[in-house]
């Protein structure tokens, strides 16, 4: 029994140390339907290295999404655009007109194609292509903002020395309400 535990622990340590997993801080981005957002990639490209964008969802019927800049000349994903960012030599992801199907965990990475010369059993040479993947340190969870929020306008209007008005806008899906609070020395 002790040998089995030692073997199991050794196996788990070997597997966990060989994984190039995602270990990054997660940022939550709350959006409203119809918003446009840009997700920034912290991976750099060089010759032969391509940016990949990934989305994982918790929706039952929403499959994961993989966007590769290697095939971007025919954009297969309406509403998703990769945007060149020269400041970090990378491609950011612009998501336009967000809907509920765009929610999920997004992260970027790189894919590099390595080519190896191999020989078959008959000594005949051939080339084998292998993709090497690395992941960035930024993960962004996109979720819907609450349907009702209170947004202060940060505006105080003063009329003379006897009153001031603070205005707050309350927004819900179907209506907008204005609230005013007037402080006047006459009312104190």
Automatic annotation (TrEMBL):
Pfam families: V-set. It comes from the Eukaryota. The keyword Transport does not apply. InterPro entries: Ig-like_dom, Ig-like_dom_sf, Ig-like_fold, Ig_sub, Ig_V-set. Residues 20-108 form the Ig-like domain. Residues 1-18 form the signal peptide. PROSITE patterns: IG_LIKE (PS50835). Keywords: Signal. The keyword Ribosomal protein does not apply. This is Ig-like domain-containing protein.
């Amino acid at each position: 029994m002790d040998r089995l535990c030692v073997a199991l622990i050794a196996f788990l340590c070997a597997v966990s140390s060989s994984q190039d997993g995602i270990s990054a801080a997660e940022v939550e981005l709350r959006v409203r339907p119809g918003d446009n957002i840009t997700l920034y990639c912290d991976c750099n490209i060089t010759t032969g290295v391509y940016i990949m964008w990934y989305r994982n969802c918790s929706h039952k019927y929403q499959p994961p999404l993989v966007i590769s800049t290697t095939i971007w000349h025919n954009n297969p994903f309406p509403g998703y655009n990769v945007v060149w960012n020269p400041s970090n030599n990378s491609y950011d992801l612009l998501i336009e007109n967000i809907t509920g199907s765009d929610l999920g965990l997004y992260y970027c990475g790189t894919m590099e194609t390595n080519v190896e010369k191999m020989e078959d059993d008959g000594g005949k040479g051939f080339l084998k292509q292998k993709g090497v993947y690395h992941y960035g340190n930024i993960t962004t969870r996109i979720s819907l903002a609450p349907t009702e929020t209170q947004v202060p306008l940060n505006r105080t209007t003063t009329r003379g020395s006897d009153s001031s008005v603070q205005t707050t806008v309350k927004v819900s899906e179907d209506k907008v309400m204005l609230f005013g609070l007037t402080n006047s020395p006459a009312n104190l």
